Amino acid sequence: MIPTLEWTPAGVNFLDQTKLPLEETYVLATDYKQVATVIRDMIVRGAPAIGVSGAMGVAIGIERSTATTLPELTAEVAIICATLAATRPTAVNLFWGIGRVRDLYNELAARNTPIPEIKAAVVALAKRLYDEDIAACKQMGAFGAELLPKQGTVLTHCNAGALATCGYGTALGVVRAAVERGHKIDVLADETRPFLQGARLTAWELMKDNIPTTVLCDNMSAALMAQGRIQAVIVGADRIAANGDTANKIGTYGVSILAKEHGIPFYVAAPFNTIDLATATGAGIPIEQRDPREVTHSNGKQMTPDGVGIENPAFDVTPAKYITAIITERGVLRAPFSESIRAMAAESELAAV
Fold first, then answer.
1. What's the pLDDT tens digit per position in 8-35?
2. What is the DSSP secondary-structure string of 239-260?
3. Is there a contact between 265 and 230 (Cβ–Cβ < 8 Å)?
4. Is this structure's pTM higher than 0.90?
5. Cα-flanking dihedrals φ and ψ of residue 212, to 5°?
């Protein structure tokens, strides 16, 4: 399994995804500010991985705090959570991970739990969320594998694999599960400009698994769909609204329209915590704007004229009408998504009682 991130006695160790595929190097974050930098700079990326990173960031902040009283620590926790929450706005998993650890802290602090016990408890929770993410991805794979063709070609956009999670992957986890069940699948990976997550990351990890992979420029998929060379599309998600509208890496929306036009199923794979029940539609999802330099430069070389205007949104929103199914670790959601999402959430609430 690809070690995307790992809690160690020295700190949280992250595979530096900005250096892939040419270098496999790691960045050790020894405090919450360093974790925030790792998230902001996309050393770690992918909504599920960001969520667990956020949880580990809060946990390491609490664990390494020198506060001697609960009021002091509580004030510090507020700063820690705010710092981590300010890194990337679109992936709801980040706020979920931060919130899970913050809520546990608040619960223990309200009981006047000794600080050493609080520190041990939040670290244990962060480690448990890591394990839960891997289990969720494997369950997603089990649910989604039979949706993919027994033999054929699957297109994906960005990286929703082991590198975007704590292991195994969401969209690529479904591909892995299908291959493990004997499906003969080739993967077409959109390069995913401007950060090239498909060309650099998806291709790298699928080649490690010996899954046949071909990289496409982002503007090539329509021609291949018209030729009948793509049988399914599967992508991940950074936030899913309550009606099924889905934010994913910029370019996903266009791929969904092409798939619809050519009668190709378009699947989204994401853990249920990616669904933001408080956001009614995709119009309410905040879209991160990133550094123009990601567009103007490639490998340090300037590619555009000085002074030209640049747009660099990190994500777009795919309307639910273009989505065939949403694969989660709790099951497969189908249209009307407002109803199926609400029903799945209600089932989970009942199970928790």
1. 999 999 999 999 999 999 999 999 999 9
2. EEETTS-EEEETTHHHHHHHHH
3. no
4. yes
5. -55, 125
Nearest to 165 by CA among 117, 133, 135: 133
Give CA torsion, residues 33, 38, 41, 42, to 10 deg.
-150
| Count of CB atoms situated within 10 Å of the CB of 129 | 22
Classify each residue of 36-60 as buried b or exposed e, where b means 16 or more C-beta atoms within 10 Å of its C-beta.
bebbeebbbbbbbbbbbbbbbbbbb
Q: Look at the chain and count its residues.
A: 353
In the sheet with 151-156, reading across from the earlier edge strand, the strands are 213-216, 184-190, 151-156, 232-235, 266-269, 325-328, 331-333
- How far is C-alpha 306 from the geometric centre of its chain's CA atoms? 34
Q: How far is CA 278 from CA 7, 275, 284, 339, in A?
A: 31, 9, 9, 15
Contact in structure between 35 and 57 (CB atoms under 8 Å)? yes
- Provide the residue ranges of all domains of the chain, joining segments of one domain with +: 5-139, 143-352
**Cα first-last separation, the chain:** 34
- CA atoms of 160 and 239, how far apart (whole Å): 13
Question: Tens of pLDDT along 266-299?
Answer: 999 999 999 999 999 999 999 999 999 999 999 8
Instruction: Tell me the CB-side half-sphere exposure of residue 161, using CA atoms within 13 A.
Output: 28
Fold topology of 5-139 = Four Helix Bundle (Hemerythrin (Met), subunit A) (1.20.120)
User: What per-residue string of b and e applies to 254-273 under the rule 16 or more CB within 10 Å gives b?
Assistant: bbbebbbebebbbbbbbbbb
User: Which residues are part of the catalytic machinery?
Assistant: 238
User: Which residue in 166, 185, 160, 168 sits closest to 270, CA to CA?
Assistant: 160
Q: Which residues contact 63 (CB under 8 A, 6 or more apart)?
A: 119, 122, 123
Residue 61 tokens read as: 């902040």
**Within the chain, where are the H helices?**
32-40, 47-63, 70-85, 92-110, 115-144, 171-180, 197, 203-208, 221-226, 252-261, 293-296, 337-352
Q: Which CATH class is domain 143-352?
A: alpha beta
Phi, psi of 349 (to 5 degrees): -65, -40
DSSP state of 201: I
